[in-house]
Amino acid sequence: MKKYITILVINMIILGFVILSSSTSRNTLTQKSANHQQSDTDSLRYKEEKHLRNLRQLTFGGDNAEAYFSFDNQKIVFQSNYKMWGLECDQIFYFDLKDGDMRNKKPQMISTSKGRTTCSYFLPDNQSIIYASTHKGGDACPPVPNRNTGKYLWAIHDDYDIFVADLNGKIKKQLTKTKGYDAEATVSPKGDKIVFTSTRSGDLELWVMNIDGSKPKQITKDLGYDGGAFFSPDGSKIVFRASRPKTPEEIKEYKDLLKDGLVQPTNMEIFVCNADGSDLRQVTNLGKANWAPFFTPDGKKILFSSNHASKRGFQFNIYMINLDGTGLEQITYDGVFDSFPMFSYDGKKLIFSSNRNNNGTRDTNLFIADWVD
User: Fold this and answer.
1) DSSP label of 88
2) Could you say which protein family the record assigns here (predicted)?
3) Nearest residue to 342 (alpha-carbon basis) of 6, 68, 3
4) What percentage of the chain's residues is helix, strand, coil (to nearest 5)?
5) Nearest CA to 369 among 354, 350, 352?
């Protein structure tokens, strides 16, 4: 999954796609965005965003991503690299939504502040979370991929393992201990299973384990990066992003990068399967990067982030699509970046990351809105 963020960013992250444009171009985009926003009190929402209402901003600086609700819909857990909070790379935080926003307050850090973290998620008790961290491999933030290669790359750090911590940051349990990358974990709404991405079989595959970390089972096997997985509301299906190198050149490049702990996430599509890996099928065939999928509350559609319609490559918006790949609909309209959508468990709220309202900076912030069918 990472699972991102900035943190998509996100971070994404994980978080990786965010944002390669210059400060000047961002200022231009921000001004264009402002011209398209509504003039009413819902001023952060673009007029085309008909599925969103009462949109409000939660964070105000840094890269903030992969924000996910607690089972009781009262809290969120997310990752951030906000330097004003003393961070050098992504760490995990939680925030109680009754406190409004984080404009003038630092949320509670859950991670150790050592290493790099990604992909946090609440457990059913609403008092503990899972997240991936490299801290057992060293206190320092691991290096980021070289940006001078002409390729956009994500690092797949072998030191990532998945941990359970309480809301005070005390680690209660380590769920994965195998050699290699274990991260991008999310929890079934049924509260019984965890899906995550691992290299333990030699490729980036999806695995499912019990909520206590027992009985891990591999559920994907095709060559390519399988990650960012989420369960459907009834726990019966899993949606995820995947790359599928086909030509000898693509396969060689993918394998060579993976040996170096890297992936190039610029060509991914959305897939869905049953929770045991059966009935695997491709949902999108849009080209470019399609990722950060999440089921709608009725389980019949999927939200995801995509740059398939972007001429610049770095502009991502959130779309909605039926499970059979029909009915594609654009949901968000920011001029730079929208991603990491998640619905509250009651289906009433949507939280996501966006570059809107960042005053021309590269900040990626969290936004929450009422969802309108």
Assistant:
1) S
2) Belongs to the TolB family.
3) 68
4) 10, 35, 55
5) 350
Residue 226 confidence (pLDDT) above 70: yes
Each domain of the chain, given as residue ranges in start order, spans: 23-371
CATH superfamily of 23-371: TolB, C-terminal domain (2.120.10.30)
d(CA 253, CA 96): 44
- Beta partners for residue 65, in sequence order: 79
User: What is the spatial distance between Cα 77 and Cα 134, in angstroms, rounded to a whole number?
Assistant: 18
Instruction: Label residue 253 left, alpha or beta by phi (over 0 means left) and psi (-120 to 50 means alpha).
Output: alpha
DSSP SS3 for 349: strand
Q: Chain centroid to CA 185: how far? A: 10
Residue 58 identity (one-letter amino acid): L
pTM of the model: 0.89
Return the percentage of the chain with pLDDT > 90, whole number.
Answer: 86
Residue closest to 12 by CA, chosen among 81, 111, 112, 113: 81
Single-letter amino acid code for the residue at 361: T
Asked whether the beta carbons of 342 and 67 are under 8 A apart, the reply is: yes
